[in-house]
Amino acid sequence: MGILDIVKPGVLTGDETRKVFEYARKNQFAIPAINVTSSSTANAVLEAARDVKAPIILQVSQGGAAYFAGKGLNNDQQQASITGAVAAAHHIRTVAKAYGVPVILHSDHCAKKLLPWFDGMLDADEAYFKEHGVPLFSSHMLDLSEESKEENIETCAKYFKRMSKLNIWLEMEIGITGGEEDGVDNTGVDNSRLYTQPEDIYEIFDTLSKIGPNFSIAAAFGNVHGVYKPGNVKLHPELLGKHQTFAAEKLGGKDPKPLFLVFHGGSGSTKEEIKTAVSNGVVKMNVDTDTQFAYLAGIRDFVEKKIGYLKTQVGNPEGADKPNKKYYDPRVWVREGEKTLTVRVKEACSDLGNTDRL
Ligand SMILES: [Zn+2]
Predict the structure, then answer these.
(1) What is the CA(319)–ligand 1 centre distance, in A?
(2) Structural domain includes residue 304
(3) pLDDT at 223 over 90
(4) Which of 41, 50, 158, 292 lies at a C-alpha separation of 20 to 30 Å from 56?
């Protein structure tokens, strides 16, 4: 039995997302969540998933969503981030089925100050739900990890009630992911906050599971966004196993892994760390920094190699009157970035055991 015996190709609902995550947790693999910022990057990620026969998660950050709509738009009220997220969702919905893979369509970190963005996306989900009976997105992330635990849980519960009615998955974060991403700088936070405690995880599970089953927790276990030289923070994916055990005991021990866990700041981690995280119930791992670099690589190498064909519209090393259109056409050079991005996404799938799963 594969994923396509459980769900259909295309963008999934929250309930369908849970079925896929249950399957992944049971079979000990995780699905990479790749940040996309354009139709080009989205298509390349879908192409990779199709080639390795796997489900995939596409996500937009608040900044990435604004970029999708266009950097030239005003975003002072999050209007470009809302418009861009909706545009990305419609694009991905339209093409995903053609690639034949199940897609979890997700929005990345939303901190307290960005809640207007979240509200705007939920309005769009609601409107789409009214018309089609399914939400626009599969899943959204709320990240109130910078606030107190009480406020974090309360805010998540409030939003989760609205999201559950719309069949949308919630990802929440507790504890802090170090490093810097999308304008949030956590490079200087206290080390203890970088490791979440099992009691806190259970408190969240207890509160949210009373509202619905469709949620996951991004627990901090020393994760850092971005790729840095090894520093004073160490990744401890074995802590995730303790969260599972603690929750399992509280729940009577029937299910040894009751939690759906998410791995943030996965770029640059070792294969061994990834394996431990997945064996402890991580079903989603975010990959952004490494795929950004991969997208550049193809374009950079093409420009370097073909520089003599890119300086003028006519005239290259083969002759002064030779046209260069077949080198400067964006379908040529942007495509080179798509190819290297696709290779990197396939590698992420393979690292997480997410291949030949359809
Ligand atoms: Zn993250």
Answers:
(1) 50
(2) no
(3) no
(4) 158
